[in-house]
Amino acid sequence: MNGVLQEARRNNLKLVLLWFGSWKNGLSSYAPYWVKKDYKRYPRIRLQGGKSIELLSTFGEASRDADARAYRALMRHIRETDGQQHTVLAMQVENEVGVLRDSRDRRKT
Fold first, then answer.
1. E strands, 11-102, in order
2. Strand bridging mode 15-19 / 88-93
3. For residues 88 and 83, what is the distance between their CA atoms, to the nearest angstrom?
4. What CA–CA distance (Å, rounded) separates 56 from 45?
5. Which of 47, 63, 61, 39 is nearest to 107 (CA)?
6. Is the dihedral of CA 74, 53, 101, 107 positive or negative?
């Protein structure tokens, strides 16, 4: 993150960052291995008809809580490292998980 900020400043650029949390381009491929192997704590999306797919469920409390902690830490870091320069103009928060093959996660909460 700091390297991106330094390069943007060096080139007189401003940044709009994208926060994707548990899903990037509709996939959970960036989740660590220990998350991917723990189906109980990190449940997967369920499609219509009951089939699960290898994407973290939008209803997973552990995923939600981990994403919230990571987002807070990132925003705190931006404030601490860019609070005076304002290189980061905005944060785009991904609002679509992209449940491919269905319109939403059908897991019961």
1. 15-19, 44-46, 52-56, 88-93
2. parallel
3. 9
4. 6
5. 47
6. negative
Where does the pLDDT of residue 109 fall: very low under 50, low under 70, confident under 90, or very high at 90 and above? Answer: low
Q: What is the DSSP letter of 34?
A: H
pTM: 0.82
The angle formed by the CA atoms of residues 78, 35 and 69, to the nearest 5 degrees, is: 25
Report in angstroms the alpha-carbon separations of 3 from 10, 13, 27, 51, 82: 10, 13, 26, 42, 12
Q: Classify residue 43 by its DSSP letter.
A: P
Domain locations in the chain? 2-93
